[in-house]
Amino acid sequence: MKVVFAGPSLFGVEHAQAGLEFRPPVRQGDILVAIEDGATHIGIIDGVFGFAPSIWHKEILYALSKGVVVMGSSSMGALRAAECQQFGMIPIGRIANAYVSGELDDDAAVALTMAPREFGYMPFVEPLVDVWPSIEAVVAAGGVTAEEGEAIRLSAEHMYFEERTVEAMIATALPPNRFSDALKAYMQFRVSQKSLDALELLAALRAAGGEPARSSGWNFHASPFWRRASELRLTVHSRDSC
Asked: Which regions of 10-68 does DSSP assign to beta strands (E)?
């Protein structure tokens, strides 16, 4: 079974679902549940933080130690892939590999807020990893000048991620008489690197064979805390499934 944890990175994006089981953005304990359910391959795209505990690195190491293939891209998946690559997790896409190489080192570059499940995890704000390629595209297309593009970039980078809407970053950067045209151009030529990387992960996951993950010569240490925490998570899942 191949399980994918995704949300805002696939919002509004057409993609085939055959052969994959899609679950909500990952949170702490979800990888354990997926393994218990029989997952042999796991793709992590989106995850939660702040309002709920984020996915624990130890869960990923546990999955890898069991031979489960784990890939990550786009958002939380990109962060965890960079952090766990040396243990066998596979980074997919431009964003994840930028974190691996050190080109990116700030978690906030992928941060956003999103709507609940009932609204398809619609993103409320624009993450920096989508702002940067979008500005390049709109400048190249002549929608804004290079100077205006630079002003929008700086505006976006200085905003708190929860306030970084496309409208806000353009309104802050440009004079009022340029707002409407610049906004229209940005939306026309917008590039979602998160979505592109997410689609790349789906393709890689579908193409993956039955080979187990390689442990790279390390051993998983099941501490007493780990055993207790995992038992509690699986117990809660069992109750929720009843």
From this structure: 21-23, 41-44
- pTM (2 decimals)? 0.90
Run of H or E residues at 59:
helix 57-65
Per-domain boundaries in the chain: 2-117+194-212, 119-193
Query: What H or E segment, with its residue span, contains residue 4?
Result: strand 2-5
Q: Edge to edge, what strands does the sheet with 21-23 contain?
A: 21-23, 2-5, 41-44, 69-72, 90-91
| Distance between CA atoms of residues 169 and 171, nearest Å | 6
pLDDT in tens, 9-58: 999 898 877 889 999 999 988 999 999 999 999 999 999 987 778 898 89
How far is it, in rounded angstroms, from Cα 194 to Cα 74?
4
Q: Nearest CA to 216 among 39, 64, 32?
A: 64
CA torsion through residues 26, 76, 82, 193, sign: positive
Instruction: Give yes or no for a contact between 237 and 36, defined as CB atoms under 8 angstroms apart.
Output: yes
